[in-house]
Specification:
Structural class: alpha/beta
Distance between the termini: 44 Å
Number of strands: 14
CATH architecture of the largest domain: 2-Layer Sandwich
Strand order of the largest sheet: 8-9-10-7-11-12-13-14
Length: about 325
């Protein structure tokens, strides 16, 4: 039942389940701006918001029922962009209907759900890809290339520091509150929303892992989810990584940093910024990158090619499952 070039038109027609804030700029427009790609339908439970989104983005069909979108014969592939708690349900429903799926990160709310999604893809022989889209962003692709070519020698250690101040609107704004509610987003709160970006890139950069362990706590008690997480990973290559994610620090202490140390130099960069530093033999080189207007577009173009049988999977369910295994272990220990 796997989708192939023979049963696709030249243009891959997409349907979005969950056309919320993340789809306004980061991803949604990329489906109709990418070559040989179109946005045919969108779904949101609020009819007024679904209709408004469709009108503003020039989408022909809108729904308040996800199954209707999945069953639409003008939809070839489905993008699931709902909160993590519903990723499994919508993904499996689309796969069982023969529609390949591009699902937002984290892949699901827990490892068990990820396994069921992977099993459904295998059982139906329908393609599944996870939106760890920073792999395809030019800045991170360049960093990976430097690592592959030995720009800083053999990598020894990696340090991640993601420190954010508590936001008063976290509990008052429903667009944010779900992110710190374990029942909808997972036990790690903001960690489950932010850490996939960092951890997936590290696995993409450094490959297989040998061991990992972490701890998490709720330091401020502002919401039910854990608000501070730390962890360590030993890669099979011998690279050692340490990471700290804390979301209630003082505003003056906020930080977004990854520091990769090698035998010949250091690479420093933010995950949500656009400036990279490379230091070799005491010489500091800084490079500024411009992210795509729709930051998921490079990844979506790769997904289009994969679904058409023209390229490999840019982020498989197996890879995303590994990322969530690490996150779940880090966030469940306290």
């Amino acid at each position: 039942m796997n989708i192939s070039t023979s049963n696709l038109s030249d243009t891959l027609r997409w349907g979005i389940i969950g056309c919320g804030d993340v789809t306004e700029r980061k991803s949604g427009p990329a489906f109709y701006k990418s070559p040989s790609s179109a946005l045919a339908a969108v779904m949101r439970r609020d009819a007024d918001k679904a209709r408004d989104y469709a009108q503003r983005h020039g989408v022909a069909h809108w729904y308040v029922d996800a199954q209707q979108l999945i069953d639409d014969p003008e939809v070839d592939a489905v993008y699931v962009a709902t909160p993590p708690v519903t990723h499994e349900y919508y993904t499996i429903a689309a796969l069982q209907a023969g529609k390949p799926v591009y699902v937002e990160k984290p892949m699901a709310i827990d490892v068990a759900a990820c396994k069921r999604m992977l099993q459904a893809s295998q059982a139906t022989d329908v393609k599944l890809c996870v939106a760890h889209y920073r792999r395809a962003v030019p800045m991170f692709a360049q960093i990976r290339q430097w690592l592959l070519t030995g720009e800083i020698g053999e990598v020894r250690t990696v340090r991640i520091s993601m420190l954010q101040a508590d936001k008063p609107e976290t509990l008052s704004d429903p667009r944010i509150r779900w992110r710190v509610t374990p029942e909808t987003s997972g036990p790690g709160g903001h960690f489950y929303d932010i850490a996939p970006h960092q951890l997936d890139l590290m696995l993409h950069f450094f490959g297989a892992i040998r061991a990992y362990h972490g701890f998490s706590v709720n330091q401020a008690g502002s919401y039910p989810a854990r608000d501070a997480v730390c962890g360590a990973i030993e890669f099979s290559s011998g690279v050692l990584l340490t990471g700290l994610w804390a979301f209630t620090v003082h505003e003056a202490q906020t930080e977004d940093l990854c520091e990769i140390q090698g035998t010949k130099g250091i690479i420093r960069f933010p995950f949500f910024g656009q400036r990279v530093e490379v230091i070799r033999q005491g010489v500091r080189m800084a490079m500024a990158f411009e992210h795509p207007e729709h930051i998921q577009q490079p990844m979506i173009e790769r997904v289009n090619a994969y679904f058409k049988g023209e390229a490999p999977n840019p982020c498989s369910a197996e890879e995303a499952l590994t990322t969530l295994r690490i996150m779940e272990q880090f966030a469940s220990q306290g």
